[in-house]
Amino acid sequence: MPPLKQHFRILNTDPGSAARLGLLSTVHGEVHTPAFMPVGTQGTVKALTPDTVKSLGAEIILCNTYHLYLRPGHRLIESLGGLHRFMNWPGPILTDSGGFQVYSLGKLRKVTREGVIFQSHIDGSRHKITPELAIEIQEALNTDIMMCLDECTPWPAGFQEAESSLSLTLSWAERSRKARTNSSSQALYGIIQGGMYLELRRRAVEAITAMDFDGYALGGVSVGEPKPLMEQIVSETAPLLPEDRPHYLMGVGTPEDIVRAVDCGIDLFDCVMPTRCARHGLLFTNAEKVVIKNARYREDNGPLDSDCDCYTCRNFSRAYLRHLYVAGEILAMTLNTLHNIRYYMRLMEQIRSAIGRGQYAAFKTRFLKDRRMSEA
């Protein structure tokens, strides 16, 4: 028998919230949820080797269809054995369809009912991605979880604009579902859009879930809207999703965002924040956000985070990390990224532990209180 593309099992639920502890099984391994996916946009988590990413606790990573289509090309990757072998990552991979990246191109794109026509950000060449091509690319990459092509509704958007955008996403979702040919080993997730309108979000859930995807994602949040509005959309939409399928919140986010969203029943997260912040010298700790270039750390012989078990915190002082960053040394990017990814992995471990003990509501309250105090 061929391997099953995906199996999701809920192991425990929290009595005081909608948080759930789960196990997502794929062809390339298991993922303990809630889980955070480090972003390896172009087939690499920037500044880290795959074995380092794995050693930090990551079980699944995210790569991007748009970028890998443009460079080096999905057919090349397919000819070299698929994305897992190409980048030497043995665990599960989720590929974003590229809808958000095309959305971010602004004037370089044109959206039609057929698909999206855009200019490459690399050389200006013109391309057209349709729902069918997005599936074709992801099947060539042979990743574990594929995403339907969707249109990311901008912020702000009027009701009619958001409704029109949702109509396009629903049409593309159906075409994506029909286009897939490898249903034995690759899961396909549908994406819930609808802007900041709960009526449209409910309509999207009803239509997308009727298509019976392997998992469901909330898209179109964290695109500039006020934080309370994002929290409302997540808290009122997530409970509408089928309980027996994974729930994925796309592009989110900060540690606080993740803790709140887990409370709503979200299982999967991704965001460039830990890697991007690391490259800009912003490092995460529970006590404070450390801007390592600041002069206050010039003679600081203490570890970055005394509570962290990562290689960076166990071996180097804040003074040394500041020196590397100010000097523009490549090692600064590696050590900073290593710490930030491990911070996120430790956060997810703490979240899963709290859910397993049935104490997530208390964990959330304490975590958010401590974060507010650290930033006061």
From TrEMBL:
Pfam families: TGT. It comes from Syntrophus aciditrophicus (strain SB). Its cofactor is Zn(2+). GO terms for cellular component: cytosol. Catalyzes the base-exchange of a guanine (G) residue with the queuine precursor 7-aminomethyl-7-deazaguanine (PreQ1) at position 34 (anticodon wobble position) in tRNAs with GU(N) anticodons (tRNA-Asp, -Asn, -His and -Tyr). Catalysis occurs through a double-displacement mechanism. The nucleophile active site attacks the C1' of nucleotide 34 to detach the guanine base from the RNA, forming a covalent enzyme-RNA intermediate. The proton acceptor active site deprotonates the incoming PreQ1, allowing a nucleophilic attack on the C1' of the ribose to form the product. The active site is at residues 96, 270. Homodimer. Within each dimer, one monomer is responsible for RNA recognition and catalysis, while the other monomer binds to the replacement base PreQ1. Keywords: Glycosyltransferase, Metal-binding, Queuosine biosynthesis, Transferase, tRNA processing, Zinc. The keyword Nucleotide-binding does not apply. GO terms for biological process: tRNA queuosine(34) biosynthetic process. The keyword DNA repair does not apply. Residues 251-257, 275-279 are annotated as: RNA binding. Substrate binds at residues 96-100, 150, 193, 220. This is Queuine tRNA-ribosyltransferase. Its EC number is 2.4.2.29. InterPro entries: ArchSynthase1/Queuine_TRR (IPR050076), TGT (IPR004803), TGT-like_sf (IPR036511), tRNA_ribo_trans-like (IPR002616). Pathway: tRNA modification; tRNA-queuosine biosynthesis. One of its GO terms (molecular function) is tRNA-guanosine(34) queuine transglycosylase activity.
